[in-house]
Amino acid sequence: MTSTEAAVIALQDHAALWSVGVVRASEVVNAACDALVAGLDTPGLRVLAACTRAEADYDVHDLLATVLDELGLTLDRADSGAGQEAVARALARRMLVGEFTPRELTVQIHQRHGHGLPLTERLAELDDEYDTLEYNDRTLDQVDAEVTAEARRLAGHLTVPAESAESPS
Length: 169
Prior knowledge:
Blueprint (H helix, E strand, L loop, with lengths): L2 H17 L5 H13 L5 H7 L3 H18 L10 H16 L5 H12 L7 H11 L8 H16 L6 H4 L4
Helix pairs in contact: 1-2, 1-5, 2-3, 2-4, 3-4, 5-6, 5-8, 6-7, 6-8, 7-8
């Protein structure tokens, strides 16, 4: 994956996580700055990246749709199935880079989606397994490994249009 592709994914992940209140608007601005540094360049991206922390809370809401559209990306409604799946994928990628533990991933997924989102059903089941480790024959390391494998599966579902991964004109 090129740095441009990684920047597109990170920006889309930050947008999804911001839409459900997991990250602050200033983190979306930081992701926009990283995207510029990685070689993406659109008028809206430049405006978003130029926001101060104080402006971010007010301006991200208005600017983000334009930026994502310029890059050929979408931000699904947070309460839609696609929006919930985007958040789950973003959380999985964050766990894989060490921002939180496998257990913390399962708790977040289970709290957000329960057992009702097919894409994350196994993670919800694994959250239940963490709660019963002392009563079954599995170890913490075994469950952590399975959560990590599930996170990799989720993270592999990339939703980046081909034209966004290329340097825009």
